[in-house]
Automatic annotation (TrEMBL):
Gene3D superfamilies: NAD(P)-binding Rossmann-like Domain (3.40.50.720), ornithine cyclodeaminase, domain 1 (3.30.1780.10). InterPro entries: NAD(P)-bd_dom_sf (IPR036291), ODC_Mu_crystall (IPR003462), ODC_N (IPR023401). PANTHER family: KETIMINE REDUCTASE MU-CRYSTALLIN (PTHR13812:SF19). It comes from Kiloniella laminariae. It comes from the Bacteria. Pfam families: OCD_Mu_crystall. This is Ornithine cyclodeaminase.
Length: 359
């Protein structure tokens, strides 16, 4: 990791919401998503180097607050993130997040960043990366004729659409949300970007003719968004919304006839759709596909399911990518975050000297 120049170790780059917006727009959203996908893929190829643990979660009746840490032995990262579905009724974001990178050798932070926008981008990039390998066999495909049904048209929906277009070439979308204003919002945003949109009035309608079904709903409950009879043979399901204990979107019968893929099983068995299944039910981790260590297509089932809950390595990749963009874009500020006494052993003396200076 590139170090800060001598004498500036206390100065930590900070990426605000305004900075992040500027960085993404400077790159172009789809370019950002495509390059971020590459960073995540690079780190999944290094899977065995990373510390891995299920996220540390504090659950309440209204939502969850989580910490997501990991390290590759050289860089340490963490993300703080919440999930509060009822926030939208108060005019608040359902998900907010921030994160940091630090240098393992010194323990000093080297980046502090907002991650509300960045989490939406990395979630879409991870969805597209999984589909690249599970639908296209590892190759990007431009000008695709694939149609995607997007169930849940809230804050994450446009990012998912753009991620699938950037990597798979998806242009045709079918939209549904129980909140019709959310569908109108999503349709208006995406039509301006050139997508072919069909807004639908029910789940049964939205899945008609869809090659890919993305579910990204927010309610913290064991919901059944899709039932078994709605999902035909050959469909790829990108299940994003079921991401904590007691929160699911798919009927169990769909899982029983699907080849299932997940990011990190010790976490997904707690939080994902597969919390509905026996602990020994066969599930393949995504890194095995990316590294070519699984021949899952032999004797495969007739539905492919990516049970996505989000994992710390993806946040690590996103922060690493943003850090690499900082010198190029200049969209950050420096924060004085680390005490730097003349004598590292005399922190109290620094405090006393500061008091004298103030006087």
């Amino acid at each position: 990791m590139k170090q800060l120049s001598p004498g500036q170790q206390n100065q930590v780059p900070f990426v605000s919401v305004e900075h992040m917006t500027s960085i993404v727009l400077a790159q172009g959203v789809e370019t950002f998503l495509s390059e971020l996908t590459d960073y995540i893929e690079e780190d999944y190829k290094r899977w065995m180097l990373f510390d891995k643990t299920p996220r540390v979660a504090s659950h309440s009746q209204e939502g969850v607050v989580e910490l997501m840490p990991t390290s590759d032995g050289e860089i340490y990262s963490f993300k703080y993130v919440n999930g509060h579905p009822k926030n939208s009724k108060k005019g608040l974001q359902t998900v907010t997040a921030f994160g940091a990178l630090s240098d393992v050798d010194s323990g000093y932070p080297v980046l502090l960043s907002e991650m509300t926008i960045l989490t939406a981008l990395r979630t879409a990039a991870t969805s597209a990366l999984a589909a690249k390998h599970l639908v296209l066999g590892g190759e990007e495909k431009k000008g695709s004729s694939l149609t995607m049904a997007l169930i849940g048209n809230g804050a994450q929906s446009e990012f998912q659409a753009l991620g699938f277009r950037a990597i798979l070439g998806v242009e045709k979308l079918r939209l549904y949300d129980i909140d019709k204003t959310a569908t109108r919002k999503c349709a208006e945003n995406l039509e301006k970007l050139g997508f072919q949109i069909v807004s639908c009035g029910s789940v049964d309608e939205v899945v008609l003719g869809a090659d890919i079904i993305t579910t990204v709903t927010a309610d913290k409950q064991n919901a059944t968004i899709l039932t078994d009879n709605m999902v035909g043979a050959g469909v790829y399901i990108n299940a994003v919304g079921g991401d904590c204990p007691g929160k699911t979107e798919l009927h169990r019968d769909i899982l029983l006839r699907a080849d299932i893929f997940a990011e990190y099983l010790p976490q997904t068995r707690i939080e994902g759709e597969i919390q509905q299944l026996d602990p020994d039910h066969p599930v393949i981790e995504l890194w095995e596909i990316i590294q070519g260590k699984s021949d899952w297509k032999k004797g495969g089932k007739n539905v492919i399911l990516f049970d996505s809950v989000g994992f710390a390595i993806e946040d690590f990749s996103a922060l690493r990518y943003v850090k690499d963009l900082l010198l190029k874009t200049g969209h950050y500020q420096l924060l004085d975050m680390i005490a730097e006494p003349e004598d590292p052993r005399n922190l109290f003396g620094m405090l006393q000297n500061s008091r004298k200076s103030a006087a």
